[in-house]
Specification:
Largest sheet: 8 strands, mixed
Strand order of the largest sheet: 10-9-11-13-14-8-15-16
Helix content: 25-40%
Number of strands: 16
Strand content: 15-25%
Shape: globular
Structural class: alpha+beta
Number of helices: 14
Radius of gyration: 21 Å
């Protein structure tokens, strides 16, 4: 760690720390469906070893006069059988540890506050947790591992601070984006895991000469477009796409170190085929994910944090300002699609894992994508009461002959209630035209080891 007793928040962590104590905290979840029932004693031993290797995760958020900071926790958290909603807030006071590990039946869950890490950093922690767990459960020697040859200081480095270049800060052009309409249930969002055959999606993307990420983003755009009122189709569907900055800078930090690329598409009066939308998405990704473009946006974010008026403001004013900036920025975005790519585990671990999923907290609609083996999982987090976009997304893949399964945190009664509220009588079973039917309750748990009947 940067010091023996505390360290500073990184640039992104400072923005997320303004949410501390609020219901809408940004938390994301990795979940692994294992081949066998989880052994809680082996999981606790694995967590002890993982925290010893990566102590920067075992921290609490504290408050100074001008900034929040992170302080090591006095004890390693205990693993527990899952008893909280998906992506439930982690900060409830100065002693709250900003990650949790839970289990249910065959599923192991890691939930992490965005205050301390991004998806790539948490992914590395999760890899080690599973590696240690399998070794503990099987009673085999723990291999040395194949991670980067870095030091504790490298892992907890504030890479934003290290690579900041004031003269390279660039503007982020914005335009009034299309906003998803309808009532929202922010207190009890819908969480879905949409599992699709990865090989089929890869073949489809290759035929279109685009990446799988571009194909998924295009599919989401087309699903949103199908729900837009004619009077709104002149507004662009604008998405933010997180980009791992480690690919552009020398860094092995496990803290936040990502930037945002943006994809914008204006539907107009005619529906272009998905192939044309995917080609445009691919063009924009290649144009906006360059080193220069990403560096400019990163430096602009850091320069905002270093504004003298903000820097020397008391912490309560700073939190209000940062939260306000976050809310205003969200108005320029329709939704978010985050792709972690292919999940790779140690060779001795992979036979024990059936699937991996990734979900994030939301106040609107968010998508996360990851692939493990031949399973591509689109994690869907939605506070929207009406599931129209999700219904069209499932239909689109189904129409292309790519049939999937859905796990949801809603049981049959909850699904029916929400569908009645949304005045939809087809239900989520209609979402895939009979091909991508959701599983709920115990059926979902049996299918993929979902936590409780409600992925709680």
């Amino acid at each position: 760690m940067a010091r023996a007793d505390w360290y500073r928040l990184d640039n992104i962590g400072k923005f997320y720390s303004a949410q501390a104590g609020h219901r809408g905290q940004t938390v994301f979840r990795f979940a692994a469906a294992m081949a066998d029932e989880v052994d809680p004693f082996a999981l606790q031993a694995a967590l002890n070893r993982t925290v010893a290797r990566y102590p920067g995760f075992n921290v609490s958020l504290r408050s100074g006069l001008f900034w929040h900071y992170l302080e090591p926790s006095g004890a390693i958290p205990k693993v527990h059988e899952e008893n909280l909603p998906v992506c439930c807030g982690l900060h409830a006071g100065p002693k709250s540890v900003l990650f949790r590990v839970s289990f249910y039946r065959t599923r192991i869950n890691l939930e992490v506050s965005h205050i301390i890490a991004d998806g790539r950093g948490a992914y590395r922690f999760f890899q080690e947790l599973l590696r240690f767990y399998v070794a503990e459960r099987e009673g085999t020697p723990i291999p040395a591992g194949e991670g980067p040859a870095d030091t504790p200081a490298d892992r907890s480095e504030d890479s934003f601070r290290r690579h900041y270049d004031r003269d390279a800060a660039g503007p982020t052009p914005t335009e009034r984006a299309y906003r998803l309409p309808g009532a929202r249930n922010r207190g009890d969002p819908l969480f879905m895991e949409y599992h699709l055959p990865a090989a089929a999606l890869v073949r489809w993307a290759h035929r279109l000469d685009v990446s799988v990420t571009a194909l998924v983003i295009a599919a989401v755009i087309c699903a949103i477009r199908a729900t837009m009122a004619p009077a709104k189709r002149d507004r662009p569907i604008r998405m933010d796409v997180p980009v791992d900055l480690r690919q552009f800078f020398e860094s092995t930090t496990m803290r936040n170190f990502f930037g945002l690329a943006f994809v914008s598409y204006r539907p107009g009066s005619c529906d272009e085929p998905l192939e044309a939308v995917a080609a445009e998405v691919q063009r924009q990704i290649l144009a906006t994910c360059t080193a220069d473009a990403v560096k400019g946006r990163m430096n602009r974010m850091v320069s905002l944090e270093r504004n003298p008026l903000l820097r020397w403001a008391p912490i309560f004013l700073k939190d209000a300002a940062l939260e306000g900036i976050t809310r205003l920025t969200a108005l320029d975005v329709t939704t978010s699609v985050s792709s972690l790519g292919r999940i790779r585990l140690a060779p001795e671990v992979e036979p024990h894992v059936r699937s991996i999923s990734l979900l994030t907290a939301t106040s609107g609609l968010n998508f996360t994508v990851c692939t493990f083996g031949d399973d591509l999982c689109i994690g869907i987090s939605s506070a929207l009461v009406r599931p129209d976009v999700l219904r069209h997304l499932c239909r689109l893949f189904s129409a292309a002959g790519i049939h999937g399964t859905i796990d949801s945190n809603l049981d049959a009664a909850d699904v029916g209630r929400r569908l009645r509220e949304a005045r939809l009588d087809g239900g989520l079973r209609d979402a895939g035209s009979g091909d991508a039917e959701p599983h709920s309750g115990d059926e979902a748990a049996r299918e993929r080891g979902c936590a409780h009947a409600k992925l709680r």
